[in-house]
Design a protein that fits this description.
alpha/beta, Spore Coat Polysaccharide Biosynthesis Protein SpsA, Chain A, nine-stranded mixed sheet, 8 helices, hexosyltransferase activity, Glycosyl transferase family 2, Glyco_trans_2-like, transferase
């Protein structure tokens, strides 16, 4: 049997959550589970009700996205973990494409490109992410982290046992917990493989955290970069060859 992939959807007062859930349920990959972690929502919870028989629904006190993701990971039964924000959408073949690649290449982590969509589900910037060469891109990914974060968190699929080494998401970063984890993954020696396909629709809208909390996000990013980039630069100097 193919390995199980757990898709974790953190949810907090988000009207778009039915679109996210349906896209997770519509995956062509045959062995998935969908966990929706309600992070203490006070609104929009009724929108989850029609899906209760098809998902695992867990409610917890509000603590932020990192705590919701970690809670979902703790309750997951899959060997691989994927994360889907409640206002974004997986394309139907998303998990299939990444698992085919990861199993064929023994990849512990993979990420992909993505399309940017608006509040009405219309794509307005295709291929929004940084593109890497289709072959021999492992060192290129590492080097890119010295200047920018090239990874959209909802494109990630990660083998669950990687987190036994790196630890899970850091709740101390309310908005950039994923960025912190990517550095820890890289510095632990786990290669992050890029797949040159757009596999999700990432939503840009006025109510998103990315739009509302820019100053806090920039502050957290600066903290992470100041700490990790010198360490990563030294790591690259000591690891001149990537296979």
């Amino acid at each position: 049997m193919l390995p199980k992939v757990t898709i974790i959807i953190p949810f907090y007062n988000d009207k778009y959550v039915p679109i996210a859930i349906q896209s997770a349920l519509d995956q062509t990959y045959p062995n998935t589970e969908v966990i929706v972690v309600d992070d203490g929502s006070t609104e929009e919870v009724d929108k989850i009700q029609p899906y209760m028989e098809q998902i695992t629904y867990i409610r917890k006190e509000n603590g932020g996205t990192a705590t919701a993701l970690n809670y979902g990971i703790q309750h997951s039964t899959g060997e691989y973990i994927a994360w889907l924000s409640s206002d974004d959408m997986f394309l139907p073949h998303k998990i299939q494409v990444q698992m085919d690649y990861m199993l064929a290449n023994n990849a512990p982590v993979s990420f992909s490109n993505y399309h940017l969509m608006d509040k009405d589900n219309e794509v307005f910037i295709p291929w929004c992410g940084k593109r890497f060469s289709p072959t021999n891109n492992l060192r290129e990914v590492y080097e890119t982290f010295l200047t920018v974060n090239p990874v959209n968190g909802c494109t990630i699929v990660i083998r669950k046992d990687v987190l036994d080494t790196t630890g899970a998401f850091n709740p101390g970063f309310l908005y950039t917990h994923d960025y912190d984890l990517w550095f820890r993954i890289l510095l632990s020696g786990f290669r992050m493989h890029y797949i040159d396909q757009p596999l999700i629709h990432f939503r840009s809208h006025e109510g998103s955290g990315t739009s509302r909390f820019q100053p806090q996000i920039i502050h957290e990013m600066n903290t992470i970069e100041t700490h990790y980039r010198p360490i990563l630069e030294e790591y690259l100097q000591n690891h001149p060859t990537f296979y």
